[in-house]
Amino acid sequence: MTVLEDRPRPKPLLTGHQDADTGVLPVIQPDPIAAPPGEVAPWALWLSRFGLLAVAVVIAVERPGPWLPAAAFAFALGLAWTAGWRGRQLRNIAFALAVFTSGVNYLSWRFTVIAIGGHPLPGWIIGIPLYLAEMHAAIHTMGLHIGLWPRNPPAEPEAFYGRRFVPEDRRVDPFKYPVYVFVPTVDEGEEVLRPTLTGILAARAAYLAEHPYTDITVVVCDDGFVAKKDTVPEISDLCRELGVLHVVRDVGGGAKAGNINNARTVVGAEGDVLLCIFDCDQVPREDFFLKLIPGFDDPEVGWVQSGQFYGNRKNPVARWADDQQSLFYRLLCPGKAAHNSAFICGTNFLMRATAIDSIGGIPTGSITEDFAASIRMAANWRSVYYTGILAVGLGPLDLASFFKQQDRWARGTLNIMWDHWRDLLLPAKKGEKGLTAQQRAHYLLATTHYWCGVRDLIFCIAPIAFVLTGISGVRGATATDFLMYFVPYFALSIAGFWHAAWDITTWRCIIINYGSFPVLLQAAFRVVIGRKGDFTLTPKKRGTMSPWRTAQLHLIVVAGCLVALVKLALSSGGTAYWLAGFWLLYLCMMSGMHMILVVLDTRQARKERREAELHGGHAPAEALIPRRDPHQRRHKGRRPARRLPKPRTAVAGLVVGGAMLFILDTSTLAAHSDPLHLTAASLPAHPYVGVGALATPYGGSGVKAIEKQLEVTFGTTARTQEIGDSFDYGWADSISSNGGVPWLTIVFSQNGKSTLNSALTAIANGSDDAQISSWAQQITAYGKPLYLTVLPQADRNYAASSGVANGGIPQDVSRAWTHIRALFTAAGANNVSWVWTPGDPAHDQAYTPPASQIDAVALTLAEFPKTTWADPAAQLAAAAAAHPGKQLMLQVSLDGTPAQRVAWLKKLQAAIAARHDVAAVVYQEAGPVSDLAGKDAQPWALTADKQTVAEFQQLAAAMAKVDNGG
Amino acid sequence: MADSLTVIHTVDPDSYIGPSPWERFAAHRVGRWLIGRLPLLAVLALQIALAIRLHNTAFEDEALYLYAGHHEIAWLLHHQATYDNYSTYFSGAPFLYPVLGAAADGLFGLEGARALSLIFMLGATCCVWGVTRRLYGRPAAACAAALFAVAAPTLFLSRLATYDPMSLFLLAFALWIVVATARGMAPLVLLAVPPAVLAVGTKYAGLLFIPTIALVAVFVGRYGGRVKGTGEARRRGWLASIGRGLLFTGSFGVLVYGWLKLLGHSYVAGITSTTTNRASGGDSLGYILKLAAELGAGVAILAFAGVYVDARLARRNGESRAAVLVRILLSSALAFTALLAPAYQVHLHTATSLQKHVGFGLLFAAPVAGVALAGLLRIGARDPRRLFAGLMVCLALTWAAIVQSTQLYAGWPNSSQMVADLKTQVRPVTDRILAEEDEVPRYYLDDLTEPYQWYSTFSFTYTTKKGQVLSGIPAYEQAIADQYFGLIVLRFGPTAGVDNTIDGDLMAQKGYKLIAKVKDSDEYGTGYYWIWRSDSS
């Protein structure tokens, strides 16, 4: 049998069209410089930019909800697959588009619900900062995806990003350039510098072995003298030993940039040469020059940057910081470079001397001179980024050092925005070449990144302030809106980020980024007030400050969150508060996880102290081992099997999941288990005696009080409930526990009023089926005999479900009754004795349901003052004649003088005693009055006078002697 | 001297551990089959997702056809009276779709009937894929399927239990057969005739698109035969290809004629009154064109661009001028079909059902539009900018489709509360109920009422107690005065003129009591269902 793809597939009828099987498109070799890029005219580029802007504007105006991001995701997957993308890049395309659409969708909706007014403080105080903070987060999330948008075919494990096609006639020989390597140092000493210089010399040897006609000069730029450090002699000895140049400044200024500029002048590294800079702890790989220098075959390439990774990952702070570095160097930098927007990161890079000289040398006015130089050079020089790990260095050794480093980077970067906003935002001056749109976008993203400290503070304050004071930054948002706009955006952002960052970094980068917010906040504040601060070195030795001192603000946040959570638990105020609760928990979790690092750093300090003591005050050096390069794994083979969940994890998951399912399952079981055999109430041996009322509080103390007063245990209690209520198991059980049978009446009114659904036609047509079935299931679950009246007084116009009013006709009663019974039967409620309770059971033929559908007939004898009271014996006889063979039930109520009531009760007693078919007699406590506690109900009460109470006691006693033959 | 630092560069990749599950899956023939159709599966998934988000109670036509279908089934199985001669005024054969739809409705309710429509429309999308793949290759097929699947009429029809999805699918199937058999013997084209006849029988308006299928049969007939070894298409002569077209057209004509003869005059009357000689409406040219443009202009423009792209590819591929001309004719026949329905409705001056008929045109235009989109994406080159542009085009069209299909689906009032209220009042057998657009409550209350209990505000004849026969407004007025109707439901919608004339006694509560005023909203704004109950009921 030929099936599926084994069958030869016909080619398209019309030739010239592509018919590559979209499943197995030939892999295009990832060599972006082998062929010229597709021609894109400037107008097309601008058109696409305006198109993107227009899309954003339209989404912002229309706010189409979650369907557009979903469609964007599906479309991107389908079309990009069709167009030949596969794997991670394919998914990145889908995420990028979905995050963009959901982000704009969310921000535009969020704008409409910013709180402005309010009391006691105007909402904008938190509303506008909160919106700006969210906007910052959203824009940077979208910025990440812009960087991830594929510009080139998939890169090799180690590849250049941002390198372009250069025609043969314009290419230059990159190996002809002399190279000057500068290693700036201040006080790091020989211990740190020796491996760096050794590594550089090894890399030089490897390079010269292949390209012997060029030269690499290694220069140590020593600022120890200027900084008044005592390391100059040992560095001098080291340089002499290794045969590298040692330049010591005697006039300071310009910090690291000034140091290098000075060394360049001294050694004459100018003209057509390449400059390479290593921080003194960055140890290059042997093939460093071999890998990077080919990037200079394009005469317009100004610099080639490679990553900066930490090798001392056994130190917890360095490990966490390295994860943060990984995110930047392994995810963001390639993306920026693909848009010709890479920037110099201060170390592990090569640059053309002519490029840096075109801006007058390395800028000395900035504490992040590298980034400042990049922005100034980027308009005229191309930048390239290399993805491999070509050098490994030392990460911060403790939290204080890490925060110091973060502070320097934040101040420097934020100041660059301050200094270069014209370059980034305004058109270039006439005659000058400005930055491209992509460069502006990427540099703006980079320079605004460090506002995340302020952003995180706002995120911390907003939910706490809302819960504690009620001041909300959001007004008019519903839970549905939240689901429609925020949840898709949040979920896609998170999923998109982790998809991109998978293998590249870990959750630690997120935590340490959040953990830095106090120091970033401080840096932002300094920049705002105009204090640039000094260039500070990242110490290469552990300081003496306790790590806990760096966590003061985090502890305050946790305390605030906990207080807010306690308040929330004590007095919840609806959905908005629960959402705030979610954020509070999230903040607690983030802060708590940062505390993990604090604890780890504390332990590390202790450990280092112990080891130092063991080794005579000097801890042994450890090997520098960088994090495994994920690009390798991404391009080779399948993921190692060890990444699969371990069997025990899977078993644990199964056990926990199974247990949860079991709990969920058992929690949905009915509270009362179903008895095996349900039986309806048969005619009791002696008539039950009880009380009842139209109102509903007859389940508790009321009955007990009357029983106590009468010194009688009732055999039944009558209760009326509305169709919207639930069955009261406690009430029913309290009666059945005494051997009695409860008598329930269900009326189809709503809050005492009849509605369209109360109509008999409505009941018969199934409009109330859900509620009836619910009652049926509950009564089935109750499982003990029960008298049930439905459609009471259906032959009267005042009934909620009337056969003579509200459009009802007598024939409707039977239909409705039969329908209700059918639903109860379907639910298995065989424990119900059906009590037909008309207004006049002696003359109800037009209304009465089929005899087979009735188990008992109830007489309602409510005797009003100043009227002729009915004869109970005659009434019972008439009812029995109209409904032969049925149990009779009585609900009586009297409003008259005590003597009248006593006399009538005597008659009733005699009438019942004369019969053998009365199942129950119930005194309706409030008569026809529905308000049991009201003034109108008092005259009807059984306990209104002592004589009646005494007579009723006698009646109850007499009933015990009535023999029904059971 | 201090200990020196050692540097260990770990750059070796993990050892290669055999093929991944994906690679193993791709190596299997089922895997290859599925992977080759992944774009189609993605498109179908998107179509399902975007369709099932549409929610509303039954549309008047849905209610009418499904109700009729139930009674047709009852007649077929038990010879129960239908109380109505549906064939005289239905725009499709009452024993085809209505029966099928009612069967699904009976099993799974309205959602079941709508699911059937969704299946038909998914089938149509698959046919678009198949047609395009065989004509223009897979990349264009993926694009064509995507464009068709997320067009507003497609999404709308995917959730509409009427004739249209079934008819559209059958047309698509016929088109696919015509294309798929192009390389085979000419008589194979006859396989397309039964679905084409069924399509037209299902919905008479489907006839409008048969000429396009015939033209496609002629043009693709030119590519009959295959060169052995290379599998390249071999040209068939003009005479043979025209003969292929005539074979299809002739057989189709004979079958349709025989069918009409068999079914009788009522069907001819139905076809005449609903389709071929439909009464002209009062909609303006501008309005019809604007509506048509909103619904289908995106795909239509891409289709015309596709004609150009295909011709350019043919020239680049070294085709002769004559061959290029044939291709232009083929692509143009498909592209111009997008304009047929709007043109016919312009001729009739009516926008009724335009939203559905535009979808029929898109079925034919989508393959050529797919060519244009695939050209824009430049398949195989993996150009991110072109991908972005293509995605923007798709997103814009999808967005418009989402918005439009939502509007279309909200074009009739949600009747759930009205029906719920009515359900509390209707009495089987005896009650007479006057309801504007009575098809909807009649459908929902089918188990409680009989067909003869329902009266609509479109037409009514009443015989007074004195034996006088009245019709129109006087009939309504007298019947209301006589409390002939047990229940009356007006919403001042399509028959607002009649409603406003006859509601005097009702508003004055003479003999009737207003029992509910239910809010409703449709494309024209917010209104109310007014429900009156007779005092004598």
UniProtKB/TrEMBL annotation, chain A:
It is found in: Membrane. Belongs to the glycosyl hydrolase 26 family. Its EC number is 2.4.-.-. The chain crosses the membrane at residues 43-61, 67-85, 384-403, 448-470, 482-499, 550-570, 576-600, 649-671. InterPro entries: GH (IPR017853), GH26_dom (IPR022790), Glyco_trans_2-like (IPR001173), Glycosyltr_2/OpgH_subfam (IPR050321), Nucleotide-diphossugar_trans (IPR029044). It comes from Actinospica acidithermotolerans. The lineage of its organism: Bacteria, Bacillati, Actinomycetota, Actinomycetes, Catenulisporales. GO terms for cellular component: plasma membrane. It is an enzyme of class 2 (transferase). Residues 630-644 have a biased composition (Basic residues). Its main location: membrane. This is Glycosyltransferase. Residues 609-644 are annotated as: Disordered. GO terms for molecular function: hexosyltransferase activity; hydrolase activity, hydrolyzing O-glycosyl compounds. Keywords: Glycosidase, Glycosyltransferase, Hydrolase, Membrane, Transferase, Transmembrane, Transmembrane helix. Residues 669-952 form the GH26 domain. It is a multi-pass membrane protein. It holds the Pfam family Glyco_trans_2_3.
From TrEMBL, chain B:
PANTHER family: MANNOSYLTRANSFERASE YKCB-RELATED, MEMBRANE PROTEIN. One of its GO terms (cellular component) is plasma membrane. It is an enzyme of class 2 (transferase). Pfam families: PMT_2. This is Glycosyltransferase family 39 protein. InterPro entries: LipidA_mod_glycosyltrf_83, RgtA/B/C-like. The lineage of its organism: Bacteria, Bacillati, Actinomycetota, Actinomycetes, Catenulisporales. The keyword Membrane applies. Keywords: Cell membrane, Glycosyltransferase, Membrane, Transferase, Transmembrane, Transmembrane helix. GO terms for molecular function: pentosyltransferase activity. It comes from the Bacteria. It comes from Actinospica acidithermotolerans. One of its GO terms (biological process) is lipopolysaccharide biosynthetic process. Residues 111-220 form the Glycosyltransferase RgtA/B/C/D-like domain. It is a multi-pass membrane protein. Its main location: membrane. The chain crosses the membrane at residues 34-54, 86-108, 115-132, 138-157, 169-192, 204-225, 237-260, 287-311, 323-346, 358-377, 389-412. Its EC number is 2.4.-.-. It is found in: Cell membrane.
